[in-house]
Amino acid sequence: MSFKLVGGEKLRLVEVAKASGTVISAGDFAGMTSGLAVDAAAATAAIAWCPKGAADGKTTCEVTVGNDFVLEGTSDANFAVTDKGLEVDLTAAQLIDIGESTTDVLKVDISTVAGTVGATTGVKVRINKPLF
User: Are 93 and 77 in contact (CB under 8 A)?
Assistant: First the structure.
């Protein structure tokens, strides 16, 4: 599932290398393996957001620098007020893994608009462990 930027914040981006056969969908998170960007998986230890994605055949991808921005995505479980501020994981399907805290690559927003109680969509997060 793709993530989208909240509030029109400005992003700092850096171009990184990726294998030409690797596809990173627009709005997905990327990790690094052997110096190349890859689609982030559940076990990825650090992530960056890839707003434009990178198609098959491309050898580079633009990813975010740092984590001074908020993203909105879908979680694997209904949002609860007690989820605010939690350090959570990313699932293999690129969902916010509310119930898991192993890699802690995401941090759930603490604001009054962090998510809608009882819904899985519209959950706001920051990258907790940025690639760069």
Answer: no
Residue 66 in contact with residue 73, Cβ under 8 Å?
A: no
Q: Is 43 left (phi over 0), alpha (psi -120 to 50) or beta?
A: alpha
End-to-end CA distance of the chain: 23
Q: What residues have CB less than 8 Å from 82, skipping those under 6 apart?
A: none
* pLDDT tens-digit readout, 88-113: 999 999 999 998 899 999 999 999 99
Report the predicted TM-score, pTM, of the whole model to 2 decimal places: 0.95
Tokens 């650090």 label which residue?
A: 46
> What's the rounded Cα separation, in Å, for the pair 50 and 47?
10
Q: Provide the residue ranges of all domains of the chain, joining segments of one domain with +.
A: 4-64, 71-127
